[in-house]
């Protein structure tokens, strides 16, 4: 689900007969739920609008957690292999990893 640049993930709680979801693009926890698709979509939009209104009332910028920097831990052997591949392709390790992630998405 997408709304105003935010992404929601939805799951079905079949025991309760309700959909529930969470906004993925935030460090803050923003959730929503509904019993029908229409109700769920409206709850998702309302939750984002409420979050943005809350930020405005407090004089805070909405949470934007993605800076483009990523800490990555991997085995020394995988690190070496990735470095060698990057060098073979004439790229920095950072650019090579970025390209591979872009291909995967």
From TrEMBL:
InterPro entries with a match to the protein in the record: Ribbon_hlx_hlx, TTHA1013/TTHA0281-like, Uncharacterised_HicB
Protein name: Toxin-antitoxin system HicB family antitoxin
SUPFAM superfamilies assigned: Ribbon-helix-helix, TTHA1013/TTHA0281-like
Membrane-spanning residues: none
Record GO biological process: regulation of DNA-templated transcription
Organism: Candidatus Viridilinea mediisalina
Pfam families associated with the record: HicB
């Amino acid at each position: 689900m997408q709304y105003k640049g935010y992404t929601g993930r939805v799951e079905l709680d079949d025991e309760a007969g309700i959909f529930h979801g969470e906004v993925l693009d935030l460090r803050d926890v923003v959730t929503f739920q509904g019993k029908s698709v229409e109700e769920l979509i409206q709850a998702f939009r309302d939750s984002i609008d409420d979050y943005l209104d809350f930020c405005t009332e407090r004089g805070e910028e909405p949470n934007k957690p993605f800076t483009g920097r990523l800490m990555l831990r991997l085995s020394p052997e995988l690190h070496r292999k990735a470095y060698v591949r990057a060098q073979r392709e004439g790229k920095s390790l950072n650019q090579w990893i970025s390209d591979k992630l872009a291909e995967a998405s």
